[in-house]
Amino acid sequence: MREKPAVKSFIDVIRFYGLLGRLIYLHIRYVYLHIKYYFLKAAGAALIEAVKLEYCIKSLSKEDRVIFATCIAVAIYMSALVMFIRT
Question: Per-residue pLDDT tens for 54-70?
Answer without folding.
Answer: 888 889 899 999 998 99
